[in-house]
From TrEMBL, chain B:
Keywords: Amino-acid transport, Cell membrane, Membrane, Transmembrane, Transmembrane helix, Transport
Organism: Pseudomonas mangiferae
InterPro entries from the UniProt entry: AA_ABC_transptr_permease_3TM, ArtM/GltK/GlnP/TcyL/YhdX-like, Ectoine_EhuD, MetI-like, MetI-like_sf
Name under which the protein is recorded: Ectoine/hydroxyectoine ABC transporter permease subunit EhuD
One GO term (biological process): amino acid transport
Membrane topology: Multi-pass membrane protein
Transmembrane feature ranges: 20-42, 54-77, 83-104, 191-210
Main location: membrane
GO MF terms held by the record: transmembrane transporter activity
Chain's gene name: ehuD
Length: 264, 218
């Protein structure tokens, strides 16, 4: 098959350092529009950093990142963007949504306001329309009755579903999920995964998922990338990676995860 | 020594004027400290190390030297380089500048108490920096700032007594003047003490009100 389509996400030889620590070391991969990728690998291998770079939360030191063909230029700590570059960055950022391990809901707002804030402030949506839409997304994640609750009144699983609704309300083309069930009590994991399964089935968003839940990754993803020490050591369809990994280190990692019972 | 009510009534008017100056000095000093403290706090987050270093030095200097010395410098030394300020102005500037260093710390602590993840989430929903400050960071930080800010303001009320040393005719200076004139200190000093007590109680009640208002942001 020839690639006529521009990749939705493109990493080319990306490197990133924190001080002396080389966190990403020549990472290259692509995601087609609508593709679901799982990023797996040991802790500290750079998976979260990949998502944070895409969300424009981190700058890179080398290589290029493109979203729908447009290069992503995130300023480093000491840099400042011109007005037009800032606007360009905001426009690209609008295509990406992210769900975090620790939810990061706004504790001083109720659930509804958490969801309507983005559309109202950044997309010029009216309050009525934003609220109607927020209620639809809340319904989709099964929390229509929690619109007026504060985040502190919700369980972890409910918080994470609100966080998902908050991201969806901005209609991103790309959704990033960073270990979204790792902070949850085991009995609350399924309700969140169920929502993500529905999303994967019913939307054509491109999704990147960082997870230790291998069974879920197997069902969910079109392709799995195995990270180690800031590199992609091996990639392939889930059946291949999980059943017959080529690399010894992938095998060792999967064995460890299964043995630790983290594979929910 | 007996308590002389007649005497008390005779100096009440001048004492009340002094109380008014004390309140005025506290309020103006607080406003200066709130504004300058915010400037120091924001500049302390500068991306330039030189600016951050300079701000850290200024804050350390203001906190590390006595208010009395700072007042003397403003009132007695600045005229040598051609800056002559009326006593009251010199006093409130001294109070405000001194306390701005403490308030800068209060602002910083309030802002730093907001979880880093709030910035990440705000960026992820594409808010601009200004919107993040306005809608996410400050509404969470301000309720935490109000109680310590209020306590510093009450501290300023009491320390404004030092302004008597640079000839601001606030409460303490009036009591001294009355005493020097009449050789009776018991009544004036007792009433000055009671005045300060009354004022701190009023300020504390106002602070509770402000705290409740700030809670509404959450
Ligand atoms: N802000 C930071 N400052 C310094 N080091 C960091 C920072 N964020 C992450 N790291 C380090 O970068 C490495 C990769 O982190 P991360 O991408 O979070 O890995 P993963 O998600 O695969 O566990 C880790 O060693 C981590 O400690
Ligand atoms: Mg991680």
């Amino acid at each position: 098959m020839t690639r006529l389509q521009t990749p939705c996400i493109e990493f080319h030889d990306v490197s990133k350092r924190y001080g002396d620590l080389q966190v990403l070391n020549g990472v290259s991969f692509q995601a087609r529009p609508g593709e679901k990728l799982s990023l797996i690998g040991p802790s500290g291998s750079g998976k979260t950093t990949i998502l944070r770079v895409l969300m424009t939360l981190e700058s890179i030191d080398g290589g290029t990142v493109r979203i729908e063909g447009e290069p992503l230029r995130v300023p480093g700590e000491q840099q400042r963007l011109s007005r037009s570059a800032e606007r360009g960055l905001q426009r690209i950022r609008g295509k990406v949504g992210m769900v975090f391990q620790h939810f990061n809901l706004f504790p001083h707002m109720d659930v509804l306001r958490n969801i309507t804030l983005g559309p109202m402030l950044t997309q010029g949506v009216s309050r009525d329309e934003a609220e109607a839409q927020a209620l639809r997304y809340l319904d989709m994640v099964g929390l229509a009755d929690k619109a007026r609750s504060r985040p502190s009144q919700l369980s972890g699983g409910q918080k994470q579903r609100v966080a998902i609704a908050r991201s969806l309300a901005l209609k991103p083309k790309i959704m990033l999920f960073d270990e979204v069930t790792s902070a949850l009590d085991p009995e609350l994991v399924d309700e969140v995964l169920a929502v993500m399964r529905t999303l994967a089935r019913e939307t054509d968003m491109t999704m990147l998922l960082v997870t230790h839940a291998m069974n879920f990754a197997r069902d969910f993803s079109d392709r799995v990338l195995f990270f180690e020490r800031g590199r992609i050591l091996e990639e392939g369809p889930p059946q291949q990676i999980f059943s017959e990994p080529r690399e010894e280190r992938t095998r060792t990692f999967l064995r460890k995860i299964l043995a630790s019972g983290q594979d929910l | 020594m007996t308590w002389d009510w007649q005497f008390v009534w005779s100096f009440m008017p001048t004492l009340l004027e002094g109380a008014w100056l004390t309140v005025l000095a506290t309020v103006v000093g607080t406003v200066i400290a709130l504004l300058l403290g915010a400037v120091l706090a924001v500049a302390g987050y500068s991306r330039y190390r030189l600016v951050r270093g300079a701000i850290a030095f200024v804050v350390q200097f203001l906190r590390g030297t006595p208010l009395l010395v700072q007042l003397y410098v403003i009132f007695f030394v600045l005229p040598d380089i051609g800056i002559v300020l009326p006593a009251f102005l010199a006093g409130v500037i001294g109070l405000g500048v001194h306390y701005s260093a403490y308030l800068a710390e209060v602002y910083r602590a309030g802002i730093d108490s907001v979880d880093r993840g709030q910035w990440d989430a705000s960026t992820a929903i594409n808010l601009s920096r200004r919107q993040v400050w306005l809608h996410v960071i400050l509404p969470q930080a301000i309720p935490k700032m109000v109680p310590p800010l209020g306590n510093y303001s009450i501290g300023m009320l009491k320390e404004s007594a030092l302004l008597s040393t640079i000839s601001v005719f606030e409460l303490v200076a009036r009591a001294q003047a009355i005493g020097n004139e009449t050789y009776r200190f018991t009544e004036p000093l007792t009433l000055v003490g009671l005045s300060f007590l009354t004022l701190t109680i009023i300020f504390t009640l106002l602070l509770r009100l402000a705290e409740r208002k700030a809670e509404g942001l959450r």
